[in-house]
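Practice problem 4.
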């Protein structure tokens, strides 16, 4: 630990107690590697402030000394966005001790950055409300990280991503000043929204310490259906028809039969919802927050009659509904077991363009890399598909190392050519930083200008995003 880092650690302990700084390498070690085990960093200390004032003091000291800081919540980034540099130059600022839900009122909650998403869900349920964002890492992902990555999930179709659900932010800026934006003003024309600037910035512009979040009434009933379909184009027609007849459609996921088959073969306890197999499937969920039940049967019936849907199964119980969703949530795991190594891409294109993109991109990639298989699954309702290119079980063990980057570059070229995004919900982090610079230099130049204006010392989350 260099003298400047030691001074920050000593002052944090002196003012906020021994728990505010951890220096035992064994205790720090779990926080030096990313969620997927791909990036490994080093840091001499893990700072653990428990208040916004403590964060502000740490940041002010770091800014004065030029010591980089890496904000960290649940460390659940899929792109290495919360891993410190390997040279040990940065201190980790963990927000996990800032884990208080400050208030839950009708229509909103104020939660600190270290509140785990599942904890917020449980607390809102008691009040007859819910925070309508959920994802696989809900048991570890924290509010600060969700804000900083503009997280999505399965309910974006109806409620939007994190950006749409944040009404205000409290954050510490790179000079140690505090942005206090939790009042939830409906009208505020004092220039560029600092709140919105911080959402999705991946901790490069400020450390989020709390957020005011929109809540909606709790679910009274839900209806979940599994549909057999001929193609993604048919799935899009079904989605449009459902959206025109109901405002309660909350989730719409699609998956190809080969991925579904992998789940049946490799995920214990998985059962096929339909009697026959079809080229594609859709998983649909509708919810109701009133005494009028969510009922997919009525809106699906005419689509079955006209043949747009080949077959459908509506979950008869909550357990069956959860079983349908378990198939969807297990696809990445099942594909790894069934098909071997793959490059995985979190991408988005316009919803209307997705069916055509899936077909053309798969054909182009498979032609460029003979022997591979390409397909996608995921959130058709918001245009976000997880596009996987699989090498096959007979591929050489070093296939990913030899071919992975070239495959991803081609996929990203195709996405960019279609006017889409190479990161729909996981962020840029370290993983896609070079690709973002290659494909969108104008965007990166703008992001760099904003970074230089707010953080001229470049102390916040070095090596991420830009």
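Answer key:
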């Amino acid at each position: 630990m260099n003298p400047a880092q030691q001074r920050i650690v000593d002052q944090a302990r002196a003012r906020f107690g021994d728990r505010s700084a951890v220096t035992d390498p064994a205790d720090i070690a779990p926080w030096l590697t990313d969620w997927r085990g791909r990036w490994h960093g080093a840091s001499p200390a893990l700072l653990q402030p428990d208040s916004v004032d403590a964060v502000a003091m740490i940041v002010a000291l770091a800014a004065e000394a030029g010591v980089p800081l890496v904000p960290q919540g649940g460390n659940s980034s899929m792109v290495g966005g919360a891993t410190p540099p390997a040279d040990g130059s940065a201190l980790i600022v963990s927000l996990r001790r800032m884990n208080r839900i400050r208030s839950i009122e009708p229509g909103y909650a104020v939660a600190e950055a270290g509140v785990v998403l599942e904890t917020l869900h449980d607390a809102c349920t008691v009040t007859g409300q819910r925070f309508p964002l959920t994802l696989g890492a809900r048991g570890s992902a924290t509010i600060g990280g969700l804000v900083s990555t503009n997280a999505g999930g399965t309910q974006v179709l109806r409620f939007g991503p994190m950006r749409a659900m944040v009404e205000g932010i409290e954050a510490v800026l790179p000079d140690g000043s505090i942005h206090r934006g939790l009042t939830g003003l409906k009208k505020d024309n004092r220039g560029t929204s600092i709140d919105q600037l911080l959402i999705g910035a991946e901790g490069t512009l400020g450390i989020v310490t709390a957020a005011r979040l929109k809540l909606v009434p709790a679910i009274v009933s839900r209806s979940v259906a599994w549909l057999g379909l001929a193609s993604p184009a048919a799935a899009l027609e079904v989605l449009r028809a459902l959206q025109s007849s109901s405002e309660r459609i909350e989730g719409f996921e699609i998956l190809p039969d080969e991925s579904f088959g992998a789940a049946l073969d490799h995920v214990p306890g998985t059962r096929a919802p339909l009697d026959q197999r079809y080229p594609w499937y859709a998983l649909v969920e509708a919810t109701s927050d009133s005494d009028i039940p969510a009922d997919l049967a009525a809106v699906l019936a005419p689509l079955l009659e006209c043949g747009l849907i080949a077959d459908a199964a509506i979950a008869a119980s909550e357990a069956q509904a959860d079983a349908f969703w378990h198939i969807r949530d297990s696809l990445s795991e099942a594909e790894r077991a069934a098909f071997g190594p793959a490059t995985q891409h979190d991408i988005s294109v316009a919803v209307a363009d997705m069916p055509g993109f899936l077909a053309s991109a798969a054909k182009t990639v498979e032609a460029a890399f003979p022997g591979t298989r390409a397909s996608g699954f995921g959130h058709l309702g918001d245009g976000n598909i997880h596009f996987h290119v699989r090498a096959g079980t007979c591929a050489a063990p070093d296939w990913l190392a030899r071919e992975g980057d070239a495959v991803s570059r081609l996929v990203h070229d195709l996405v960019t050519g279609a006017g889409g995004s190479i990161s729909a919900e996981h962020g840029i982090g370290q993983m896609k930083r070079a690709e973002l610079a290659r494909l969108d230099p104008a965007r990166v130049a703008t992001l760099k200008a904003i970074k230089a204006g707010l953080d001229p010392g470049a102390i916040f989350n070095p090596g991420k995003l830009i």
